[in-house]
């Protein structure tokens, strides 16, 4: 049985960030304004990064009044901000409807990466993840996703740094909020938007098969990551209930189609859980599945401890053994560098703590 589509925010007015440049051009045309005004609005939103229409001083007052009447700015109220000793910064933001989301800035040698959230909560039900603990509340609008990156960039502006890459790996399943995610991406990569290179953006899915096919047809250079976490149907169904909806064989077939269609490599994310999916036989089985992909890459992730879950971290030596088995079978594998462990930077942990206090 197909699940119903998640609800979205019933806002009185759309958000300014909800519109692409093409949307603004259409709105400006319908409003009877000069065509170049759309580019000016876009510049104020994403280059100057103002927080109100009143600040758009090169627009006529009458146009600013129209904007105030018809659009809102996204409300992202900072509830908490934690800074790790490794430079990771995690935000807990409250939305206009009092729901809470998380956004993370991660500092790397090659630049600043932002991990964004696409839903309030998650219904995928992965048994090792904190994001699913309270289920799904609603989808975010495109503007609510975009606002997270704008906030991150504003955080970096005082030091003249910039957001250089984005991972869509925060709370929620991006491919269950597909249209909003794609509109978000259009603004991120637009030369007059935040102008982030497509190859510096990665979207991760737990395996929503129909939208993997759909994404293959988008003709982008954006990276795709698949949360696989098991080498077979039986184990994956135990860890990830989504596998019962879209079985393992169907997922692998969709991934093969994506690679054939795009010529691009897929990253397979594999969270290692002690004694569950981290044995040498699991590595051998995974290698047999993935060696059919010409450019497969496995990102091994030592599982984060979540107090409400029973999983334990795989011992260090076993992680390296797992990696060696994959590489011996010609499957490229790396181990994710842990960041922000001292500030509960794993997806959903901060929001879960916040909700224990009676918040949403």
Automatic annotation (TrEMBL):
<dbReference type="GO" id="GO:0046872">
    <property type="term" value="F:metal ion binding"/>
</dbReference>
<feature type="binding site">
    <location>
        <position position="204"/>
    </location>
    <ligand>
        <name>S-adenosyl-L-methionine</name>
    </ligand>
</feature>
<keyword id="KW-0808">Transferase</keyword>
<feature type="binding site">
    <location>
        <begin position="172"/>
        <end position="173"/>
    </location>
    <ligand>
        <name>S-adenosyl-L-methionine</name>
    </ligand>
</feature>
<dbReference type="InterPro" id="IPR058240">
    <property type="entry name" value="rSAM_sf"/>
</dbReference>
<keyword id="KW-0963">Cytoplasm</keyword>
<keyword id="KW-0411">Iron-sulfur</keyword>
<comment type="similarity">
    <text>Belongs to the radical SAM superfamily. RlmN family.</text>
</comment>
<dbReference type="InterPro" id="IPR027492">
    <property type="entry name" value="RNA_MTrfase_RlmN"/>
</dbReference>
<feature type="active site" description="S-methylcysteine intermediate">
    <location>
        <position position="347"/>
    </location>
</feature>
<feature type="binding site">
    <location>
        <position position="126"/>
    </location>
    <ligand>
        <name>[4Fe-4S] cluster</name>
    </ligand>
</feature>
<feature type="binding site">
    <location>
        <position position="304"/>
    </location>
    <ligand>
        <name>S-adenosyl-L-methionine</name>
    </ligand>
</feature>
<keyword id="KW-0698">rRNA processing</keyword>
<dbReference type="GO" id="GO:0030488">
    <property type="term" value="P:tRNA methylation"/>
</dbReference>
<keyword id="KW-0819">tRNA processing</keyword>
<keyword id="KW-1015">Disulfide bond</keyword>
<dbReference type="GO" id="GO:0005737">
    <property type="term" value="C:cytoplasm"/>
</dbReference>
<keyword id="KW-0408">Iron</keyword>
<dbReference type="GO" id="GO:0070475">
    <property type="term" value="P:rRNA base methylation"/>
</dbReference>
<dbReference type="InterPro" id="IPR013785">
    <property type="entry name" value="Aldolase_TIM"/>
</dbReference>
<keyword id="KW-0004">4Fe-4S</keyword>
<dbReference type="InterPro" id="IPR004383">
    <property type="entry name" value="rRNA_lsu_MTrfase_RlmN/Cfr"/>
</dbReference>
<dbReference type="GO" id="GO:0019843">
    <property type="term" value="F:rRNA binding"/>
</dbReference>
<comment type="function">
    <text>Specifically methylates position 2 of adenine 2503 in 23S rRNA and position 2 of adenine 37 in tRNAs.</text>
</comment>
<dbReference type="InterPro" id="IPR007197">
    <property type="entry name" value="rSAM"/>
</dbReference>
<dbReference type="InterPro" id="IPR048641">
    <property type="entry name" value="RlmN_N"/>
</dbReference>
<keyword id="KW-0949">S-adenosyl-L-methionine</keyword>
<keyword id="KW-0489">Methyltransferase</keyword>
<feature type="active site" description="Proton acceptor">
    <location>
        <position position="102"/>
    </location>
</feature>
<protein>
    <recommendedName>
        <fullName>Probable dual-specificity RNA methyltransferase RlmN</fullName>
        <ecNumber>2.1.1.192</ecNumber>
    </recommendedName>
</protein>
<feature type="binding site">
    <location>
        <begin position="227"/>
        <end position="229"/>
    </location>
    <ligand>
        <name>S-adenosyl-L-methionine</name>
    </ligand>
</feature>
<feature type="domain" description="Radical SAM core">
    <location>
        <begin position="108"/>
        <end position="342"/>
    </location>
</feature>
<dbReference type="GO" id="GO:0051539">
    <property type="term" value="F:4 iron, 4 sulfur cluster binding"/>
</dbReference>
<keyword id="KW-0479">Metal-binding</keyword>
<dbReference type="InterPro" id="IPR040072">
    <property type="entry name" value="Methyltransferase_A"/>
</dbReference>
<dbReference type="Pfam" id="PF21016">
    <property type="entry name" value="RlmN_N"/>
</dbReference>
<dbReference type="Pfam" id="PF04055">
    <property type="entry name" value="Radical_SAM"/>
</dbReference>
<feature type="binding site">
    <location>
        <position position="122"/>
    </location>
    <ligand>
        <name>[4Fe-4S] cluster</name>
    </ligand>
</feature>
<dbReference type="GO" id="GO:0070040">
    <property type="term" value="F:rRNA (adenine(2503)-C2-)-methyltransferase activity"/>
</dbReference>
<feature type="binding site">
    <location>
        <position position="129"/>
    </location>
    <ligand>
        <name>[4Fe-4S] cluster</name>
    </ligand>
</feature>
<dbReference type="GO" id="GO:0000049">
    <property type="term" value="F:tRNA binding"/>
</dbReference>
<dbReference type="GO" id="GO:0002935">
    <property type="term" value="F:tRNA (adenine(37)-C2)-methyltransferase activity"/>
</dbReference>
